[in-house]
Design brief:
CATH superfamily: Metallo-dependent phosphatases
Structural class: alpha/beta
Distance between the termini: 139 Å
CATH class: Alpha Beta
Order of helices and strands: HHEHHHEHEHEEEHEHEEEEEEEHH
Helix content: 25-40%
CATH architecture: 4-Layer Sandwich
Radius of gyration: 37 Å
Strand content: 25-35%
Largest sheet: 8 strands, mixed
Number of helices: 11
Number of domains: 1
Shape: globular
Length: about 400
């Protein structure tokens, strides 16, 4: 006889509730474990400690950034007829680049470069001419531009050699080559030149002792800056108002062919630096004269330095005396860090105007003496033993003159 099995009825509602409860319990357990576990592993920094660290960062002053500007200046561009004839091509044009090829690296390595343009450049208006009333081909300005010069100082004793028209044409020709002109003017707006580079603002003024007895035209009394303390002080004050960091004066003064500055030069330099001028580049003697670093005490009692070179000598010429073939390029590095402004570095690169006959024609070259001597000794360049010994003597003599005032 088959045994009768008892069947149980499942309560699905209770089963579903039980499953939901178990899942909820497991979920809560896992989440709680993760939460408390993460809190135990996390490093908690008290609020006051964190705020102190933040305060330190905020209160720590940021160090001012330092800016530098390298400024180079060459001496007298005295272009005799022998010089411009030596670079004249068969087609009647002129190419001055070979004259400056060896020396242009000095200007190209600088941030701001200037030179004394000793001659009118109005060859498009008047024929090129020699001393005593100079005039150069316009291509001279291409050579100046191509060697890295940006500013030409035109206040010198030959500024009016071709009259007011020649002076004005020189300015126009220079500006057409994107050269900045300082010292001679087309209008009565004779304010100094202001240039800003590398976050450093400089002001540049240029003055000459005279114009070789040629009267200043009554129709344009402003056309060339003649040395006058009141006018120079007005320029200095203008540059200060413009918030310039450094003030430069190009001064055409001194006694020709004297390798030592005179009392008039010293007195004018003292006047300039005591009134705030930082750099003085001298020209006109046609030979080198010394440089010096002058200590200046300001109105507030602080002291600063000013750089002065009394004469850079000739940059290029056909003058025949020994010292007239010598000269230099002054390179002055200025720096600014916050309110601190100073002359950071300075040097003079001695140069020599070489004149040789090559293939029956005169060849002029401006040579950096130290570099040419070094390259000869390394077998890079070729000179005769006599030329090498001559360059060594010229280097020694030039350095002796420039360093006369160094202790």
């Amino acid at each position: 006889m088959r045994r009768k099995v008892k069947r149980y009825k499942v309560n699905y509602s209770k089963l579903i509730l039980s499953v939901i409860f178990i899942i909820a319990l497991l979920t809560t357990t896992v989440y709680g474990y993760k939460y408390f576990s993460s809190k135990e592993n996390k490093k908690v920094t008290p609020y006051n400690e964190t705020s102190k660290e933040n305060d330190k960062e905020e209160l720590k002053p940021k160090e001012a950034e330092e800016y530098t500007l390298k400024i180079s200046a060459g001496g007298d561009l005295l272009i005799h007829d022998t010089v411009f004839k030596s670079v004249k091509s068969n087609d009647g044009t002129y190419n001055f680049d070979p004259v400056f090829e060896k020396i242009k690296y000095v200007f190209e390595e600088s941030d701001l470069s200037m030179i004394n343009l000793e001659v009118p450049v109005a060859g498009n208006m008047f024929p090129p001419s020699n001393y005593p009333n100079f005039n150069s081909p316009v291509e001279l300005l291409d050579g100046v531009k191509n060697m890295g010069v940006e500013v030409v100082s035109t206040a010198n004793n030959h500024a009016l050699d071709k009259g007011l028209k020649g002076l004005q044409e020189t300015i126009k020709n220079a500006e057409s080559k994107e050269l900045k002109v300082v010292g001679t003017y087309l209008t009565d707006d004779t304010k100094p030149l202001i240039i800003e580079k590398n976050n450093i603002k400089v002001g540049i003024a240029s003055y000459t002792y005279g114009t070789n007895g040629i009267p200043i035209p009554k129709s344009a009394p402003y056309c060339v800056n003649i040395i006058d303390k009141d006018a120079m002080l007005e320029d200095i004050n203008y540059m200060k108002e413009q918030k310039t960091d450094f003030i430069i004066f190009s001064m055409h003064f001194g006694q020709e062919y004297q390798t030592t500055q005179n009392k008039t030069q010293e007195e004018l330099v003292d006047f300039l630096v005591n009134n705030g001028v930082d750099i003085v580049f001298g020209s006109h003697p046609h030979v080198p004269q010394p440089y010096e670093i002058k200590e200046v005490e300001l109105e507030n009692g602080l002291k600063k330095q000013a750089y002065v070179v009394y004469s850079l000598g000739n940059f290029v010429s056909n003058q025949v005396d020994y010292y007239t073939k010598l000269g230099g390029i002054a390179t002055v590095t200025v720096s600014k860090k916050g309110d601190e402004k100073k002359i950071a570095d300075n040097k003079v690169t001695p140069i020599y105007t070489e004149l040789k006959r090559v293939n029956g024609k005169s060849r002029f070259r401006v040579l950096p003496l130290e570099k040419e001597i070094y390259e000869y000794e390394k077998g890079i360049t070729t000179y005769s033993t006599a030329e090498y010994n001559s360059m060594k003597k010229m280097l020694g003599d030039t350095n002796y003159i420039y360093n006369k005032l160094q202790k």
